[in-house]
Design brief:
This protein is 31% helix and 26% strand. It has 137 residues and is α+β, with helices and mostly antiparallel strands. The chain has a 5-stranded mixed β-sheet.
Amino acid sequence: MSCILRAIGSDFDVDGFLKDSELTGAAVFHRGEARDRGVTEGPRRAASGFNVEIGAASGDDLDALIQAAGRFLRRHEDELRRLGSFAGVEEVCLDFVIPRQEAAAPAVFPADFLWQTGALDIDLVITEGAQSESKKA
């Protein structure tokens, strides 16, 4: 289980933003690049952007991940506001990647966290990931 901040835009000068930013992109990508590294043929990226790893939690500890994301938002509030208004940025989101489970518990995001992300104009995304082999047994 993990949480990633993602910023994208078709005309986003991602290098220009990150040059003066306190945020460090774990993955930086540019419009027109191959989607898969090392592959010259195939689909190309339609937008530029970056990902920042917010945190990871073992097991099903979504609450700990939400708390880590809340701390990140508070610590980088001014920079996230700059990001949201930076030329070319079309979307900023927090992507919570959770394992796919047959009988998943509901994901509950506290109202104060939703208010915090909304005030920064940050979307919430939940991506269901494949369950690890160790958890399938």
